[in-house]
Write a structure and sequence with these properties.
92 residues, mainly alpha, two-stranded antiparallel sheet, 4 helices, binds zinc ion
Length: 92
Amino acid sequence: MPLALCLECGAMKTGPAWSRCPECGYRPAGLEALTRQLALSYHYRCEEELLDLAGRFRAGEPWPADLELQEELRDWVEVALPDLPEELREAP
Ligand SMILES: [Zn+2]
């Protein structure tokens, strides 16, 4: 099952990594947010790891620093970006 964590509130989302959060309504848009979002999804981490990260985030810890270090991931998002729906392309 596709799983991802909400960047804003740490809730577990099922479905595509870029879908809207059912708890807080946040949806990532733009290169930076989409890259970070992908790094917090089943594409990159197993379910156990996601649950662990969610628990820590909700306890007040920041997301791991590697969210911003995934150059490969960012390149991939950059290539995919023009084909994404308009509301995902631009940061609000
Ligand atoms: Zn949320």
